[in-house]
User: Which sequence fits this backbone?
């Protein structure tokens, strides 16, 4: 198990490489440069404390300081001006760094999410349909949101590292013995905490799994609310969702425990080390206060910096698996992109669609379609009949260009519909499914979703062809806000709006997949009457078991277990 986990991690891109690639070299370099300036000015300001204290107290620091500032005694006005200048430079650099860091975080997170959406939208339908929707939602929402945390932790880690290095350099300049002792202990603590960083990474991977479980449970619960209430399973569903969140919180709790223990150890060890070094420096090495106080200030600054560095290293290790998993999934989906040639002209359907010995296997060893030979004349109305699982929707996906066969050919007027031509062919196809999908917005918005440039005349014609003139009588007409999913409309009204949207594309092929199975008899008659008026103006493929739409077909074929078994 552990070997498999290591092998899997070796295939994943490192999180820092993913973040750097998404952020861009120039913006990343700008953030690093401003961070460096801010840290260096802070270190120089701390180093100035020695000559400042010497000037104020009249104490000669040169006799005790073993660093490069030994004997350096400029005038007090000069020191104060330099100090103010360093503070001003640091404040400006910190402000500019914050702006640049914000731009970097936005570019990385929004860039990853945009890349993920682009990959999903461009992916081959067969590959995409095999993936669990809850996993894709977890990637788009949770994993990429954690990439934002990784950016914050990474930038803070870099900033803290620079500040820590500047403090150490200033301390070495004041007294190499004092600071070197502290650096050795700090490095030892950092090495000893490697196990905590590994634990943080493992808990981060567990958190990824927890997010996926949560999304799966929530999706199931929201999609099945009617069924849950009908079967009185509210308490059980609530308990299952609570259990998913409980497992997720368990990973979070264990992480906070190990992080808190590490913080306690660091702070106690740091305080003890500081006390010991101050005693040695004062009692054994004879350091005067003008040197000892700046060293104490530097060390007091370095100890929390070391703690912050260690904390954010753990935080980064904790969130890195989410970034790596999102990048891996994005790369997988990008590799499954379907061919896209915008210059390719779509096939024209004027004579027939023909399928020759078409086979399709979804990869589970069972054929969804087997040896399909079929011809659909142009401008005809054709019905695909059969029970659920017979292969009707799969065959419709092949006719509509969503899927390609494993073997055999699909011909549009004798021209083969290969992988490159399928995407172009879809511009000639309109599809209606069982549940009408309407989007938040007006009737006009929903229609123009299919054809944004459509004018008023085209909108009116599409609504009339779909027998959806009722839309003009709504409050506000076709600018009436339908709300989420068009819930204020009846099922038949939603289907006719969806039909109008499909017809607005002026398709050559209209596929009606169980388009009236979810509405009542009166609404079915309305939709069937609209479809009947379309007969002869375009090719119509009706998928169903029975009903008014299938009765309109001039020819019917029946599928059973992926094979054609009857034709009429």
Assistant:
């Amino acid at each position: 198990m552990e070997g498999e986990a290591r092998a899997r991690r070796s295939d994943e891109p490192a999180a820092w490489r993913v973040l750097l690639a998404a952020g861009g070299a120039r913006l990343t370099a700008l953030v690093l440069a401003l961070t460096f300036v801010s840290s260096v000015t802070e270190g120089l300001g701390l180093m100035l404390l020695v000559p400042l204290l010497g000037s104020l107290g009249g104490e000669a620091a040169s006799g005790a300081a073993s660093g490069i500032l030994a004997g350096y005694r400029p005038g007090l006005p000069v020191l104060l001006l330099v100090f103010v200048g360093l503070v001003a430079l640091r404040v400006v650099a910190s402000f500019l760094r914050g702006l640049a860091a914000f731009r970097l975080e936005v570019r990385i997170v929004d860039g990853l999410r945009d890349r993920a959406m682009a990959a999903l939208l461009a992916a081959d339908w067969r590959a995409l349909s095999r993936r669990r929707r809850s996993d894709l939602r977890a990637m788009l929402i949770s994993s990429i949101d954690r990439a934002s945390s990784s950016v914050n932790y990474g930038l803070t880690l870099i900033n803290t590292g620079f500040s820590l290095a500047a403090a150490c350099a200033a301390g070495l300049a004041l007294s190499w013995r004092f600071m070197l002792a502290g650096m050795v202990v700090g490095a030892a603590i950092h090495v000893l905490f490697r196990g905590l960083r590994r634990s943080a990474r493992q808990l981060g991977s567990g958190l990824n799994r927890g997010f996926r479980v949560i999304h799966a449970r929530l999706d199931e619960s929201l999609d099945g609310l009617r069924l849950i209430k009908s079967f009185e399973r509210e308490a059980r569903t609530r308990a299952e969702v609570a259990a998913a969140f409980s497992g997720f919180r368990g990973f979070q709790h264990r992480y906070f425990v190990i992080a808190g223990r590490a913080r306690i150890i660091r702070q106690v060890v740091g305080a003890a080390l500081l006390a010991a070094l101050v005693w040695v420096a004062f009692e054994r090495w004879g350091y005067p206060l003008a040197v000892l106080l700046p060293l104490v200030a530097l060390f007091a600054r370095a100890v929390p910096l070391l703690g912050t560095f260690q904390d954010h290293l753990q935080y980064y290790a904790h969130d890195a698996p989410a970034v790596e998993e999102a990048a891996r999934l994005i790369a997988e989906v990008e590799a499954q992109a379907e061919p896209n040639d915008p210059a390719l002209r779509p096939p024209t359907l004027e004579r027939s669609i023909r399928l020759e010995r078409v086979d399709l296997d979804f990869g589970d060893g069972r054929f969804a379609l087997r040896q399909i030979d079929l011809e659909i004349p142009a401008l005809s109305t054709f019905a695909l009949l059969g029970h659920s699982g017979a292969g009707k929707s799969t065959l419709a996906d092949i006719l509509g260009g969503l899927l390609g066969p494993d073997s055999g050919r699909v011909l549009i007027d004798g021209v083969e519909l290969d992988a490159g031509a399928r995407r172009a062919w879809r511009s000639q196809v309109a599809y209606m499914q069982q549940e009408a999908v309407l989007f938040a917005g007006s009737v006009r918005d929903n229609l123009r979703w299919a054809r944004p440039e459509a004018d008023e005349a085209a909108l009116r014609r599409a609504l009339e062809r779909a027998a959806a003139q009722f839309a003009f009588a709504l409050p506000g007409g076709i600018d009436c806000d339908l709300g989420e999913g068009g819930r204020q409309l009846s099922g038949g009204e939603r289907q006719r709006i969806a039909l109008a949207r499909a017809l607005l594309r002026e398709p050559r092929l209209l596929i009606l997949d169980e388009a009236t199975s979810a509405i009542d008899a009166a609404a079915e008659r309305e939709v069937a009457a609209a479809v009947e008026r379309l007969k002869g103006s375009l090719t119509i493929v009706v998928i169903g078991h029975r009903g008014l739409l299938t009765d309109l077909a001039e020819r019917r074929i029946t599928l059973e277990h992926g094979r054609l078994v009857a034709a009429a």
In short: The chain has 19 helices and ten strands. Residues 352-567 form a domain with the Rossmann fold fold (CATH 3.40.50.300).
